[in-house]
Amino acid sequence: MTVAAGETHHVDGTEETIVNADGVPLSGILALPKRVPPRAMVVALHGGGVNARYFHGSAHPDVSLLTLGAKLGFSVLALDRPGYGRFADRFPQGQTLAEQTLILRTAIKELRMQPEAGAGIFLLAHSFGGKLALSAAADDRELLGLDISGLGHRYATDAADLGTPHERTSWKRNWGSLGLYPPGTFQSSGPMVNPMPLGEATDAKEWPCVFGSVAKHIRIPVQLTFAEHEFWWRHDDQSLEELTSSLTNAPRVVVNHQPAAGHNISLGWAARPYHLRALAFLEDCLIDRET
Asked: What is the pLDDT of residue 6?
């Protein structure tokens, strides 16, 4: 991981950074704890139509994963996926899930060699970022674990009618009630919004077919969280039983339901309890490695 000369260091303790994935630069936001070395590194992967700033919301201090994780002794890197962030123009049509997977795996290899990684890498991901996290984690036993929100294996709507995140028809599925979010959330959301690349939007429709082939190769602990007002994915008892039973080789699978939350959990009032639960799961994964 490298920080380019002249990079921005923010007063909130975060810094803009660049990860070099074998010649492919990925931008991101990094928060480091006061303790050295960090206990582990959380690599956070955003969903479609937003960028890494999704995990460092500015509407209220309690919604930032980066701030909370650093306070608890972890380094937290919110990474812009290929097609997003500073280097979005390198992939103007975006990349397929398979292409993003190759780049992320290379980035993870680079991050593992950095002192900021501590005891290892833990992936925390949302929505499309969760697809990437699962795909990249296939057969990787070195990752500490996975925490994924806003992702299932069966859409709650017809895949042909998914649209894109910023369409008016997608508002309810993305957000739910306005009361789930701190005042100012939408006024301050401009810097985190990115167009969803066309190639990615097309690829998203294939996920129900891809999931099964990926799930059987997950060999690390997995935690899945569904918001109370999750409208993108089926999360009834039967669907969840089918989903978890597909993760046949994961040593542990935990499913949580987050009350008073919409699809974009990490920007709402429920962000703090969700992030705390995700980091507690990371703590469990660290204990698993030590015993």
From this structure: 42
